[in-house]
Design goal:
The structure is a homohexamer of 130-residue chains. By secondary structure, chain A is mainly α. The first copy, chain A, is built from seven helices and no strands. The first copy, chain A, is globular and about 45 Å long.
Chain lengths: 130, 130, 130, 130, 130, 130
């Protein structure tokens, strides 16, 4: 284990998170946290984005592939839309996202595939409107 | 839709499947099918390997990333071990598989991560013994 | 494997799908597809409705029982509503759908049962309004 | 097995359910049942609230912990919000619910944690508005 | 709600359970229960087999279709094998079980389908050996 | 976020983990790690046991209730057995574990309940043999 502090993981994570999800979104998200949700938001920033996404040896594009496949299978619509947007920022094209969700349809079942395509379309539309 | 026949999808799929899973394994698997399981085996070959894995625009290494992440989340031990072996054949290193399963631990939960690491170790051992 | 082409599976599937889901719905759905979703829609038509639903030896009423039970357990609200409507067209009565979802409550848990009843009621209402 | 009747389980369950979810909510819910949903509602009252929640040897606060953890993992938003409200009535504080959902984030994955926090906040808001 | 007692539900359930799973299996299962597992076994008998499976208006063959589809999706190998055996006793043929699990492969994903076929084959073999 | 380092979280986690799972088990587990699994083991110790289980405001007995309910629903047999053993060390009685798994049967479905009871019995037997 490193001697990195939670605080420095958080700072590192915040920078990655802003690059991937956009500074605007992240700042709005932080401003919206209250006493009840703050620890969850801090952990997500420090552990997901600081400890995991910052690890060397696996590029961001590949990490986005992992998340799209996994979150589609886990059936979590809000997070899936978020990570569709992140995937585009990390260099995946719409055509590649299409290939991922066709594979979801085959291995996680057609309803999982259809739901993922619908949510991706919503995410694309939201990005165009931003 | 293409005018490709089921039969030609099957033939194409069989070739890909042998490249990825090894000719020995695939031939043994086909020989082991009976009247009850034959259609499932044929569909898996024609649709997974023929229709999906043979599509252009997304390389095999990326498809292996999708499957490891997705099948870990779907909690299917037999298929996960199979696709760990396939992933090595498709060019993922053990270090990269480690990164994928650390990400599984964060997004699908620690028990999913721990199970995936244990199954991957079993798969590695089986490959060494082959 | 048959020598049937993807194209003929698609045509066969399209006919079955229109019988089960209604020609209006299916035509609207096809018109709504874009480049991103087209392959998913074609696969769903060719493989679900053409290759699977058209198989002899298992009647459509029985296939609807399978789908209601399975999609309730898989927790996919959009697809569940669609297949509640399809089930009525395939000859299941509301009383039989009730029996299926009571069984879902016992084997997949009370929250799965309650969600399924609520979604079925929404589907019934949408059909009445059509 | 006891010689208790379904009817008396229902009566016992109705009393517990009103204590935990509030008499108003329960009466509205019963009034809203129709022929299609009535058995599900009766079973839920008799078996969940009458047979299970009325068992001695495990207090209601502990049963609420079980349900929050389990329903978060099962990914059932409607029931989760209902049981967040029930948990507060059964003596869990918001700080304790926060601890439960941080644990959900670690063991069921970050998206499950984030979804649970968001739903809990919605439930709190609905209670404040009542 | 009926005025039926838990005890009479249990007796009714025991009779159905013996018809479907075989008297030998059920008696061995009851003899194997201890203080820790007894209530679970009694509830399963009274509520699954007494309250649910004994309801009129949905035949046993249809209930077996529901359970095979649902338990395959729920990923519960022990229960799936048990209900494959029950399904044969309730009049489903091996060819029909094959159709159900092909449908599982399409809607719940190929790994769910393959696992279900393997478990069904194990169940068939165990029945032949009995 | 605290200025605690990963290393100190690991040390704190290691102490808690040994108290809950037994020093023997934990040392054997650490000795069994290799280059492939080491980071997963370290993260589990630092983040599960150091960051989560060490938080004030929620006692270990309550955290064990959360984990039994959640891991039963997540369908992870290895981890469930481990946490059944931990639960006994954290002060839950067998009778209370029975209540938790009856509740699992009602809310996550009878197969989840039956599987959990069987796994708990195996865990009890392993503890008696230790």
């Amino acid at each position: 284990m490193s001697d990195e502090t939670e605080e420095s993981l958080f700072d590192k994570g915040l920078a990655v998170r802003k690059e991937v999800l956009g500074a605007d979104y992240v700042e709005k998200s932080i401003a919206g946290a209250d006493e009840f949700t703050r620890t969850m938001a801090e952990w997500s920033t420090a552990y997901c984005w600081g400890a995991l996404w910052s690890r060397p040896g696996f590029d961001r594009r590949s990490r986005s592939i992992v998340n799209l496949a996994m979150i589609a299978a886990l059936n979590r619509p809000h997070e899936l839309k978020l990570h569709v947007k992140a995937a585009l920022k990390n260099g995946l094209t719409k055509d590649e996202i299409k290939e991922i969700f066709l594979q979801v349809a085959v291995y996680a079942g057609v309803p999982a595939g259809i739901d993922s395509f619908r949510l991706a379309r919503e995410a694309f539309k939201e990005m165009d409107g931003e």
